């Protein structure tokens, strides 16, 4: 403490020592909730800003209602997706070195035994 700061009065120290969580919560200012700030009462769904709605998308039709061309395009997309996934897994699988199971030696590794015997 520097020489030009006034000492803290005993009354302030008593208040500091007497404070507890309940007293702090009781006297602390409360921030209003988002609903209170928006003016909504609990239970009401009030949107703030522009509400997003899905537009310009056709509803999904059942398979039976699709034409032959639409069915073939849909099937080709599914088949293409499946082929792409298989190719990805094959490529990723080749890049990964084979790791042996615990207790097994990796393939191609030969351990030489020394002539020394263990006690």
Summarize the structure.
By secondary structure, this protein is mostly helical.
Low-confidence stretches: none
Q: Terminal Cα separation, in Å? A: 70 Å
Described by strand count, sense and barrel closure, the largest sheet is: none
Residues in β-strands, percent = under 5%
Structure description:
The protein is mainly α and 119 residues long. It contains 4 helices and no strands. It has helices at 10-18, 21-27, 34-38, 68-95. The model has no long low-confidence stretch (mean pLDDT 78).
List keywords for this structure.
119 residues, mainly alpha, 4 helices, 0% strand
Q: Which SSEs are present, and which pair or pack?
A:
Elements: H1 10-18, H2 21-27, H3 34-38, H4 68-95
């Amino acid at each position: 403490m520097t020489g030009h700061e006034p000492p803290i009065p005993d009354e302030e120290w008593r208040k500091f020592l007497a404070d507890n969580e309940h007293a702090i919560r009781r006297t602390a200012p409360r921030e209003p909730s988002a609903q209170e700030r928006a003016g909504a009462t609990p239970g009401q769904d009030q949107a703030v800003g522009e509400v997003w709605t899905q537009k310009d998308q056709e509803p999904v039709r059942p398979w039976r209602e699709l034409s032959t061309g639409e069915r073939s395009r849909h099937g080709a997309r599914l088949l293409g997706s499946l082929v792409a996934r298989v190719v990805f897994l094959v490529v990723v699988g080749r890049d990964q070195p084979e790791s042996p199971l615990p207790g097994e030696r990796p393939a191609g590794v030969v351990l030489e035994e020394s002539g020394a015997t263990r006690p």
